[in-house]
Amino acid sequence: MSQPRVVLGVAGGIAAYKVVEVLRGLTEAGHDVTVVPTAAALNFVGEATWAALSAHPVATSVWANAHEVSHVKLGQQADCVVVAPATADLLARATHGIANDLLTNVLLTARCPIVLAPAMHTEMWQHPATQSNVATLRARGVIVLEPAAGRLTGADFGPGRLPDPVAIVAAVQDVVRRPPTADLSGRRVVISAGGTREIWDPVRFIGNISSGRQGVELARTAVSRGAKVTLVAAHLSVPAPAGVTLVSVSSADDLLAAMLAAATGADAIVMAAAVADFRPEAVATSKIKKPEGPADLSLKLSPTVDILVELVRRREGGLPVIVGFAAETAVDEHELVQLGRQKLARKGCDLLVVNEVGRQVVFGSEENEVTILGHEGSEVHLPRSSKAAISDAVWNAVVHEWKRA
Ligand code: CTP
């Protein structure tokens, strides 16, 4: 297969320095990248940097190489155009079809997926003009990633930071690997990911080794298929994907509250988080000291609420479709499915994604082998696959449930 061709547009914002990492990530992942910086962008990062890292001449002007009509060719031949940072000005020009430099010409001629990674001050991002531009672009099928929140240039703090370069590269890879089908568009989905922590004194907790990778892949694939995604995240050890509404939680109780709040009006809920089944009955307010001499310490634990069961219990009508995950130790596939069926019946959800733990490492790994069980008896076995491929299969099963409803 030939290398996917990506045009990396860089608009004039200070976050341009972080986009050097995006370029490296794209080329290392095997993309053929042409960088199109705006004149303003070159004030932040010079032409030589882009040329050296992309191994291509940098296209800066509609007047350069006029005989090649590059403003038309670049857009037409690209498999994806990504702009990072997409400044407020760039978003406005893209929305209104203004073509006053090479990058905006490319955006008008491109017929491939377009990914925009905004970065600007919070006030500019939240301004009704920018928000209305973003809504228009999204309605046209442009993927506008949600900016990250945090410290901005200067002392200000809020949404407007460039999404993590790793997340921008992943968003491009997603659309290049599979042009968006948008079969989840108009749907709102809620996903829990990661592992909860139960505090028992100011410096100690009971946790688990879930990385959150499967939940993050579920969120990323749902975004690329057009869904509006809320990711309720408990201590992820991988970055959250771009384009989601992120709700960070810590304990099982926090997760329960966040899931109940997000569940209202959702079309699907996927419980991929590893939730503590027990929590310490009492939380010490000061650090528990080691006693003098040898001594045992016992912690009294009490059960947490089963969030999955609670979500099923509160559901009215057929929506949301509710998906659980189950980690089981079994001797063979037959026993695994049997244990999964029992859990599916116990939890009352629509779909259960069962994986075997014990013999194979699942937590933190890039791959997994699962069976998706449906409440009406369906059974889809996925041989060892990437967590992204498993996520796609889960969404296919959810789409099937929506059609049945
Ligand atoms: N789950 C939940 N709330 C809990 C415990 C688990 O919502 N307090 C959800 C998990 O997110 C997962 C599903 O229930 O989607 C199954 O989790 P699992 O740990 O396999 O099942 P348990 O109910 O804990 O049963 P057991 O550990 O006995 O197998």
For the largest beta sheet, what order do the strands appear in spatially? 12-11-8-13-16-17-18-19
Q: What would the average pLDDT be, to the nearest integer?
A: 91
**Unique ligands:** cytidine-5'-triphosphate
How many whole angstroms does the radius of gyration measure?
Answer: 24 Å
Number of strands: 19
> Could you give the distance between the termini?
40 Å
Poorly predicted regions: none
Largest sheet: 8 strands, mixed
CATH class identity of the largest domain = Alpha Beta
Helical percentage: 25-40%
Count up the domains.
Answer: 2
In CATH terms, the superfamily of the largest domain is CoaB-like
Helix and strand content put the structural class at alpha/beta
Q: Please name the CATH architecture of the largest domain.
A: 3-Layer(aba) Sandwich
Coarse shape: globular
